[in-house]
Amino acid sequence: MDEIKCILRNMQEEMRQQKADMLDMKEDIKNTIVSNMSEKYNSLEEGEELLPLDNEAKVIPSPVDYVDTWKAMEKLVDLGLTKSIGLSNFNKKQIDRVMEVARIKPASLQIEVHPYLNQVKLIDYARFLGITVTAYAPLGSPDRPWAEPDEPRLLEDPLLKTIGKKHNKSPAQILIRYAIDRGLIVIPKSVTKSRIIQNFNVFDFQLTAEDMKTIGSLECNRRLCTLGE
Ligand SMILES: NC(=O)c1ccc[n+]([C@@H]2O[C@H](COP(=O)([O-])OP(=O)(O)OC[C@H]3O[C@@H](n4cnc5c(N)ncnc54)[C@H](OP(=O)(O)O)[C@@H]3O)[C@@H](O)[C@H]2O)c1
Known about the structure:
Elements: H1 2-18, H2 27-30, E1 31-35, H3 66-78, E2 84-88, H4 92-101, E3 108-112, H5 120-129, E4 132-136, H6 158-167, H7 171-181, E5 185-186, H8 193-200, H9 209-216
Bound molecules: NADP nicotinamide-adenine-dinucleotide phosphate.
NADP nicotinamide-adenine-dinucleotide phosphate is lined by residues 35, 88-89, 110, 136-144, 155, 170, 172, 187-192, 195, 198-199, 225.
C-alpha cells in the first residue's frame, strides 16, 4: 500500500535525523497523526514540500483519501510501528467519515484552540466520541510567517494582561492554564529556555469561574491557521 510506504518513509527519515530508535522518538512521531490542512482537501500533496503550492500559489491537495490513510495508519499500529494514531484539522464531517471505517478510534484530535477560537462545538463532539482534544496555537501563534503586522495579538490582549496581573502570571501562563482548565491537552511552543520554564509554571494558581467566563468572552471566530482557498 503506497500510503503505508509513504508514512514509513517519513518515520524512518525522522528516526535518521534524530539518530533515535522508536523508543526515543518524539511523542508526535511515535503517535502518528493524519493532518488535513483545509476543510476542502484530503490533505496536502505528498513529497518533500511541507506546503506544496501550484503556479497560482494555491495549495496542492493530495489525491489520497484520508480514509485510506487512516486504514494505513491502523496497519502501523498493528505492526507496532506507532503507539497511537490521531487526527488533525478535521471537522465533524471528516471525523465521521473516519469513524465509519475505524477499527482503532483516533486517540486525539489536534486543532487550533485559543480564546479567539474556542471551538466549543467541535470539542464537545470529540469528547462525545471519546477522542481527546489537543489545542495547538494556544498562544495565538505570534511567530507564524503569515501574521499580519496590525492584527490583534492574543498575548497582548488587555483582558488577559489584567487577569494575569491579578494572579501574578503572564498572559501566556493564563492562556495555558485556561486550556488546561477546559480539559484540553495544550502544546505551546517555545525555543526560549526561560519561556519553556514559565510555560510549565502554571499549576500554582487557579483561574476563577469568572476568569474562565471572561476569557471565553474573547471568542471572535478568528482562525489563525488556514490555507485559504
Ligand atoms: N496540527 C497542525 O496543523 C498545527 C498547526 C500549527 C501549530 N501546530 C503545533 O502547535 C504547537 C504550537 O503552535 P504554534 O507554535 O503555532 O503557536 P503558539 O504555541 O501559540 O505560539 C508560539 C509562539 O509563542 C511564543 N511564546 C511561547 N511561550 C511564550 C511566553 N511564555 N511568552 C511569550 N511568548 C511565548 C514563542 O516564542 P519563542 O519560540 O521565540 O520563545 C512562539 O513565537 C507547535 O508544536 C506546532 O507544531 C500544529
